[in-house]
Amino acid sequence: MRRRPGIGGLQTAAAARDQYRLLGENVAKLKTDLMKEQLATFRSQLEDFARKHKNDIRKNPAFRSQFHEMCAKVGVDPLASNKGFWAELLGIGDFYYELGVQIVDICLVTRLHNGGLIKLEELCKLLNQRRKSAREAVSEDDCLRAISKLKVLGSGFEVISVGKRKLVRSVPTELNKDHNEILELAQAQGFVTVEEVERRLSWSSGRATDALETLLDEGLAMIDDGHRDGKRQYWFPCVSSISSYVGAETL
Amino acid sequence: MQKLGDFKMPNFFNYPPYFTLQPVKDTREKQIQLWKELILDYCRTQKFFIIELEKEFPLFTNPVIERSLSHEARDIFLSALVSDGRAEWMDKGHRKCLILWHRIQDWADLILRFVKDNGLEDSVMTVEEIRSGTESRGTELHGIDRTVLMRALKLLEHKGKLTIFKGTSADDEGVKFSI
């Protein structure tokens, strides 16, 4: 269509634009309303669900974990705000804050023995020991959730994977790949020797010694020269139970 | 849990590296701290007063994990107790160590309480009686090491709470309380 010149043409074009905009807004509003309605329905159903299974969520760690998974799938974070209805409904926010504080405490107490690295398993065990007066059992999943909340504080808490195990780090030490491999190797017996590291990881002796020395300096390893064969063993309290054992007595 | 008699050993006792002196400062400090506590606890509950470094001592060896403390380690742990005032070397060569889970002053206080509890304020007792007589049975004084007891008595004598008098032999040294 040929554009006609003159003021009339411009006015018509502007009017058309307005019409389109109105129409567009209507459509968008309709969609939004629909979404809002769906969301409200969904929310109320989720609330109903949570209310109905409140006790299960509180008391049963496996159920709690599944509930969290479900929430995550639909993009709801029950821990996002302590003031939200989740907190009021379940007291779930407080629960994780409480866990967080206790986790920090356990990590601090055991730090002297394990250099600030502790098996998730151990941490969880200690946490349960400590909370034995509380009714609810705490799972490893709960620990992980509480730790992820701690991250917000920039406190340097982090979960690292070493082999199949998960370790919780509470010191800002950066573990490089070599250190990780040694820790993984040490999980079998609780200790390694320089020879074993060289043989199993095909490293030069310098590389093995360097990495082990660093781990010693960081307080993550201890030496043992008392074995019959006279070979120095490097023990890692963080992969054995000793860290918690020693610490648990003072908890 | 490993036990020595009725004494429950702490868990670190079963962890081999605690038997080797740790080269890293922080780790060693923690190690020394744990050993100090263990030595004091053990000696208090088992009534050990003297540790001889070169002799067998239940804490220095753990047969279960086949580890024992080196002479150097024993010396370092005990010296740490000495500098805390909880032990004293009995010779220059650091071969014998007197363990003071109660300080001499605390032992002296215990003696005073014992005297008051038994109404012995103006009595005479032999040193041996204090250590093994019927009056002290069931108290912490029962079975106290003679050296420690004499030190505490001398402290009290110095304060004018009693007089020590010599008999014909070491066995019948006596004490006249005047509290």
UniProtKB/TrEMBL annotation, chain A:
This is Vacuolar protein sorting-associated protein. Keywords: Protein transport, Transport. One of its GO terms (biological process) is protein transport to vacuole involved in ubiquitin-dependent protein catabolic process via the multivesicular body sorting pathway. InterPro entries: ESCRT-2_cplx_Snf8, Snf8/Vps36, WH-like_DNA-bd_sf, WH_DNA-bd_sf. Gene3D superfamilies: 6.10.140.180, Winged helix-like DNA-binding domain superfamily/Winged helix DNA-binding domain (1.10.10.10). PANTHER family: EAP30 SUBUNIT OF ELL COMPLEX, VACUOLAR-SORTING PROTEIN SNF8. It comes from the Eukaryota. SUPFAM superfamilies: Winged helix' DNA-binding domain (SSF46785). Component of the endosomal sorting complex required for transport II (ESCRT-II), which is required for multivesicular body (MVB) formation and sorting of endosomal cargo proteins into MVBs. Belongs to the SNF8 family.
TrEMBL record, chain B:
Gene3D superfamilies: Winged helix' DNA-binding domain. Chain C. Domain 1 (1.10.10.570), Winged helix-like DNA-binding domain superfamily/Winged helix DNA-binding domain (1.10.10.10). GO terms for molecular function: protein homodimerization activity; structural molecule activity. It holds the Pfam family ESCRT-II. Keywords: Protein transport, Transport. PANTHER family: VACUOLAR PROTEIN SORTING-ASSOCIATED PROTEIN VPS25, VACUOLAR PROTEIN-SORTING-ASSOCIATED PROTEIN 25. One of its GO terms (biological process) is macroautophagy. This is ESCRT-II complex subunit VPS25. The keyword Zinc-finger does not apply.
